[in-house]
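Okay, any thoughts on this one?
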Amino acid sequence: MIRKPIRFIIPALRYILKNRVFVVLNLLGLSIGLSASLLLIQYALYEFSYDKFHKNSDQIYRVRYDNYRNGVAEFESAAAVPAVGRAMKENFPEVLEFAWAYPVKNGFFKVGVKSFHEDKFQVVTPGFLKMFSWKFIHGDTSALSQPHSLVITESCALKNFGTTDVRGQVIQYEDGTEYTVQGIIEDVPGNSHIKFSILVSADVMYPWIESLPREIWTWYDFNTYIQLKEGTDPEKFDIKFDKWVSQELADFWKKSKRRQYFRLQSIEKIHLYSKLSQESEPDESGNAKQVIILSLVAISILVIAWINYINLSNSMTWARTREIALRKVAGADKKHIITLFVGEALLMNTLAAALCLGIIELSLPGFSDLIGREMSMSLLGDQAFWIILVILLTLGSFISGIYPAMSMSIRKPVEIITGRQVGFRTGLLLRKILVIIQFTVSIGFISSAFLAYSQLHFIRSIPTGIHLDQTLVVWGPGIEFDSSYSGNDRNFKNSISNLPEVKSITTSNSIPGIEIFLSEILRRPGEETGMIIYNLSVDEEYIPSYGLDLVSGRNFHPIMDNGKQSLILNVCAAKHLGFTSPEEAIGEKLIFMDEERTIVGIIKDYHQMSTKQTPRPLAHYYNPRVNTYLSVKLKSLNINETIAVLEYAWKEHFAGVPFEFFFLDEVCEMQYRMDKQINKALRIFAALAIFIAALGLFGLSTFTTQQRSKEIGIRKVNGASIMSILLMLFKEYLELIFISFLIAIPLTWLSVQKWLNTYEVHIKIQIHVFLLGGLIVLLTALLFVSIQTIRVANMNPTKALRSY
């Protein structure tokens, strides 16, 4: 039993030792291809694993909210109204549980005399703990059922208490309300579309929300989830609920000329497929098309590696013809020859797999930075990883070993010994087809990489309409709720505005780069309908500090606008309201927040989030007491000293409140994180694909020059130069590259165009990008073919003739 496999292992090892150069090239190509593929496949599996750690993830859905007015879509939101979840639970037996979560971006808490800030703070209904599978360290799913209780994560507990056993500890919110910690859960997994550090029950913090009569069907800041009974069809439920809500809100819709739709989204698909406004974590949203692209890149690189192995193996197969002939003369049958070659391929693939594990371990830190996800060697403990690896090994061994095995097994010993090239043309044709595939993929990768870079450069070159440079943003102290800090905000602003290092300071409830969640209905007096508009509260320094361009009217003024009766709209909002020009809008009255306000200014449209999206209608209203964010514009190059001065002033005015800050450009850069990742990944893996394809090309050129060495010798005897021989051989590869170029253009064009369509603004695909990709492949082919051809052409022609 043992001797039988040894009969094939020993010749394989002998072959490896005898042909070390080719074996190293094969191992290099296979291991790099396998490593790149496994890393990308692991990343794809991680992206598709989002929210599947919940026990009943296939039964949990988020309610998306689409609003139409006069038949025109106003918005499509991930956040719904607070009434919808309870309505589903109380009126439809298919719904087992419901919950909503209201994110609070800036929450201040106190533990004793120590204050801390949390931006991952959510107000939730009790079902939030029951529906989702959060892992409790202390406490259970009933932790929020007691009055004035809250739940915190392990990291939050360690940060503020130094231990996780903190049940019973009291934490004070910024409004003075005290809450008792009743539960500690493990940190939210990275593959969750919901992130939080603190949970507080809505029944305690916002008990008035559920009692609102009509606003609960229009105020849509609530991420709402339901759990359906097993086997319930979500699409049929959507139809059923739409029929019910159409009857319930018929009068309201008719009066307001609106139509509301509430549709279910599987939580397993939110991360990759949902691109709505007010996503839970917009900076972390994935892109299914990008993941699919990288998955195809993984498969393509692996296919190139296998093709490379076939070409290199075949270039050496003809050197083993006499060995195969002797085996056949000695009685080896077709099965024996096939087993020999497939066994060698299995051994090579196994060695490549072992080498690839080392490559993966070395490259994981860089790969984690590349994709923006923390990956580790813990994947070795993942059963799916080993299943994929075994499948790839088996498939790769069969694919890469079966062709050379079949080509040799069908030949007769006399044909091999006499050198008759039966089936040579057919074999060469197949090898050319394989190289065409390599060239096609390589040209596609290079062209895609250039197009991805062009798209990133394009969206980054679009003017944002807002000045972001040298802006330090400090989390506000929560003084709107804490009377002990009354007046300190104005004193702090005055004290640092006089510093020579500071250009200006402004306060607001939102900043560029962060999605605005607050919305209101804006309408003209006498009109029953209006438009839902996102709004932000600012002081009088916001517009000049951020360099917003006033195209008509004036800025806010602390005396003229102290009664909070003024509005500044952007051009987009003015157009939506029907004003034909910015000048026409100045002085006009609008109903905003249920009170009449006057338009005092119109500003040029700017990109609040990123240039990937077109500007949205925005309304700015004056509030000198707003303090969520303090934006400090710096002119000093010595940033560290300036920050130290600001921190000192902060502690003087807000003792006990942590001085927490960030730079605005870093936040805005997060909007382009996924684009930069796909761009960099395509460049790196395009380079790998070319490298591996070049190894395969080296194999084919080696084989071709060996087969044509007699012809080359005769040409040299007749006076042919090395350059003429090189051009003669390279013409064949030029033909292959041209065919690959023609195939690569439509395939790449279609796939890249689908990716570009995910952007609201994007480049137009230009043909020169494909020409550049083809040129790079052409030069690479010329280099590798030249190396082998020149080596053979420099040989003594008598030696080549004697070998035949």
